Structures are given as structure tokens and as C-alpha cells.
Amino acid sequence: MSMLNIEPNQIALSLTLGLTLGLSGCQNLPKQPHLADSQNLSARINALYQQNPNPENTVADANNDAEENTGLLNPSNTNRSNKNLVAAISEQNDIHPELSGYHPIVTGANAFASRSILTGMAARNIDVQYYIWHNDQAGQLMLKDLWEAAERGIIVRLLLDDFNNSAEFDQHLLRFSSHPNIAVRIMNPLMHRKLQALNYVTGLPRINRRMHNKSMIFDKQITIIGGRNIGNEYLSNDQNSQFADLDVLLIGKVVADIDNSFNSYWSSPLSFDIETLATPDKNATKDFLVGLDKLEEEEKSNSSSSLAVYKNAIEDSTIDEDLINKQVPFRWTNMQFLSDDVGKLTKSVPSDTNLVQQLRTLLGSPSEKLTIISSYFVPTRDGVDTLVRLADSGIDIKILTNSFDATDVTAVHSGYSQWRPKLLRSGIKIYELKSTASEEKRENKLWRARSQSSTSLHAKTFAVDDHQVFIGSYNVDPRSANINTEMGVIISDDELAQQLHEALSDDLLNQAYEVKLSDNNKLQWHTIENGETIIYDSEPRVDFTDHIWLKIMSWLPIDWLL
What confidence tier does 389 reach under pLDDT thresholds 50, 70, 90? Predict the structure, then answer.
């Protein structure tokens, strides 16, 4: 997500306070980022796997560890299906020792249910890494799930980027990390925890670089990665906006690489235990469950639609039984995990180690087809020249990104829209998701009742020729390439690549516009509304003021920030 998505009043406030307070001598970050308790928690995880690497004994290990360290767990209450889960995954791994299995998670309901249910099935440890974790119903429900796992003796490590946190959320995290089986660390933290606008004055160059990685790893056996953050809008349960996104459930060989990546970020000196950054509010509750105010407010009100959606999602999901019975249709194939080195945040590693360079090396140049789906598509002049050269050589290129009305970062649209004519003249096909796309495809009654929210594309995936697909957190923009850290997997699968290529076609026109050039070289937007083909000669839902704003933004040398 672009760092330019900052409210103007925040900037004004930060400048005013900066001048008033004289911040040249501002506070520094703590010298010791990792406290003994959280280090001991990591040591306990290592000991679990070193002492008994056999995953089928997972539940017994978790029971013994919890009894010894916390006294919180009654072994008779442990769900014995945990052992069956790990055994079922292990059996599949043994059949495909050099491969990895994947299963796409397309809907927000399944995305929430998968995370929640797997949290309840974990038997040793859960490692969590996210760019955004909202303090809303989804965020608090997921924290509650993790807390309940810790109560069973599961060790939980939560690593969050700090840019979207708040002083209020700090208090939730402090209460959450008070559990003896939980540790919370903040990556590249803001120095000013309460007056956060001050950070834009005192530390803008540093805080401009963010950890954009997203993953959950359960028992080092199964993981979820992709484009989704944790929040109502990312899990298709927000009344104002929703993100169309893509995650992938992974087992097999690739999970160890994802686990190693998490550990490198967790142990980095850029990650700080929450206790080193924030202090408990004396007037606030110390009870973690009592402090979950978003859940309490909705339970007290007559309208519990948000919680009902999540509850129904879990009730409708069969992922637990399917995993245990080996009925999840994993496709087994060669897979490569890619991740930026955490040193990218401090510019302390060579640029040729960046994920974008790894992608170029592993994927090479397409020989037939290239399909790109990117929520924030900012190709830059060099990128456009590359795409045009490929198209001129006969490569079939298709792109899906957000329309102006669907994007949540207007500045990003200015960095993309100016290049449309040149791309189209080379024969590249461009599709733009409509903000009304969610209203076209409602099936569940609860979803239909909440269909007034607008949709924004948030997925990050692309297919090269007929055999390789990337899924992860990486957008096709300069920010992902050069500033933020990213992660993802390259999946070698002809069927998946074909599905992605075929997804961008005329069948998409109920949900998107296809941008074309008219006979007189003007842009047009073709779509289908109420069963009829409609052609717009001007950009839909863009008024005169928007046009002026986009034009001004396109003149500014800010592509590198987008």
C-alpha cells in the first residue's frame, strides 16, 4: 500500500507540532529490542522441535510443555484431532518429499475460517506476520483465537508492521502479550506512540520503509500466505469497502523456507517487543478478553451482523475435517519461496538480493503469455518500455488492476493511468475492476444484505507462459520493488497458469471495464451492465476535479514512492 495514503490533516498536525515542540532532540528507539521473556519463548519452540522432531507426537509435546511452563492446560481437554491433522499432513509430505502442495483461498469467508480453524487445531506453535492488523471485529476475533490457543499451551509469536498501529491498539497488544505463551514484536516501530503524527516529521525517511509480508504458520507444517491483511474489509465483511484478494494454503517442502523467513524477521534488531515501546494505561483494564471492546459492543447491540458473518463462515467451513481426512484438493508441484531480506528496510543488503530481482532471475522473460493482476500497478517508464518490447515481440499480455473508483490510493492511479495509451497501442489488454463488482456476485443472504460496500482489488498474482504463477504480497510497483519488504511463492503448474490467463477475458466485463483505444486514438471503457454492452468515452466515475488532481499528480516525480 502506498505511503501517500495519509490524511492531509495528519500532515498538517505533524508539521505544526514539529515546529512548536522543537523535535531535533526527539526520543530514540530502545537499545535492547528483545526482552528475556520473548527470547525464552523462542527457545522453547526450538526445544520442542529438537527434542521431538516427530510431528505425530505434537499434542503430547504441547501438553507437557504447557503443564511444565504455565500450568494452564488440562490434557484431557485437548482436541485429539490435532495429532490427526499433523499426521495427515506428514503422510502427504512423505508421498511428495521434494514437492509442495497448494490450495487457493479465494473468498474472504474462507480466508477467515481457514485462519480461525487452523489456529484452533494447532498443537505446538503459531507464527504470525502481517503488515496490517486492524483493531476491528476481525482483528479482535483473530487475537481471541490466538489467545485461546495459548490457553491450550500453544506458543504464539505475533510480528506486526507498525505503520497502521495506534496507541489504543498498543494497549490490546500489551494485554495480549501478557500471556506466558505469547510474544508480540513490532517491526520498524514508530518512535512516538501516542502523538503518532510526529513521526512524519522526525522519522519519515525510515518509516517510509515497511514490512509488507503476510503469513501464518501452524506447527511448521501448514501455512497461509498471500495478499490479505487482517481486518473486516480484507475478509469481505465491511459495510463501506471490501477487498477482492487471494491467499494460498501451503504444505510440503516450501513451508520450511517460509518458517525460516519468519525467524529472520522475528530475530532482527528492527523488531521490538511491544513492552519496550509502550506502557500499560493505568486506567485501562488488564484483562485481555475484557478489553476486546469491538466484540463487546457488537454483542450488546441488537445488530450482530459482523460477528454473525464470521460465525457462519466457520460453521460452513469443513477445512478441519478435510485436512484430517486428506480431502483438501492440494495440487503437488515444484514451488519456490521468495522473500526480501529484512536488511532491505535499512538498505544494508545489495539491491540484487531484492525479491524483484529473484523474480526476474527465476521467471526470465515470457515466451508466449504474461497475465498480471495487481491492486497497485505502477509500471514506470522503464517498466512500460519493457512491456511494450515484449508485446511487440508477440507476447500476449493482459493486465487487471483497479479502476479509479475502485482504488483506495488515488495517487497510485495517477502513476498508472498516464501509461494506458502507450500500453494499449502495443496490443496489451487492460482491465480495470469496477467498485461495484461485489454487488454482481452475492450468494449468501448475509453477504447480499451488506452489498452496498464498494470493492477494491487487492490481489497480487501473475502468470508467465503456461507453467509458472506467482502469488504473494508483491505489487507491480516501485514501492514493492525497492522500498518495502515482500514475500510470495512461484508455483509451477500448467493448470493454474491457464486458469489465470483465461480469467482475464470478456467474461470479466460484468465485474470490470476493458480499456480500449477508439478509432480516433481516444480511451474508451467497455463493460456490461444489466446484460447490455456499455461504452464510456470518458473515465467512469471521474469528475472534473478528479481529472485535474490526477493530471497534477502525474506531473510530480513521485513514481518511486508509489
Answer: very high
CB of 428 closer than 8 Å to CB of 399 = yes
* Co-location of 39 and 154 in the same domain: yes
Give the separation between CA 318 and CA 328, rounded to whole angstroms.
9
Q: Which residues are catalytic?
A: 212, 214, 219, 458, 460, 465
Q: Cα separations (Å) of 88 from 102, 110, 452, 555? A: 15, 21, 42, 56
**Which of 299, 311, 297 lies closest to 116, judged by CA?**
311
Residues 6+ apart with CB under 8 A from 43: none
Dihedral (C-alpha) 239, 460, 215, 486: value to the nearest 10 degrees?
-120
Nearest one of 175, 206, 214, 172 to 190, comparing CA atoms: 206
What is the rounded distance in angstroms from the CA atom of residue 146 to the CA atom of residue 121?
11
Q: Note whether 346 and 276 are same-domain residues.
A: no
Residues 6 or more apart from 17 whose CB is under 8 A from it? Answer: 23, 195, 197, 198, 201
Question: What's this model's pTM, rounded to 2 decimal places?
Answer: 0.88
The per-residue pLDDT for range 520-535, each reduced to its tens digit, is 999 999 999 999 999 9
User: For the chain, what's the residue count?
Assistant: 562
When pLDDT is averaged across residues 490-511 and rounded to a whole number, the result is: 95
Residue 436's domain comprises 333-561
Grid cell 487482517 is found at 230
Sheet of strand 487-492: strand arrangement: 335-339, 487-492, 468-472, 460-464, 369-374, 396-402, 429-433, 512-517, 523-529, 532-536
Domain of 172, CATH number, reads: 3.30.870.10
Cα separation, 262 vs 145, whole angstroms: 20
Distances (CA, A) of 458 to 245, 370, 375: 5, 19, 5
Give the whole-angstrom CA distance, residue 293 versus residue 288: 10
CA separation for the pair 21, 42 (Å, rounded): 40
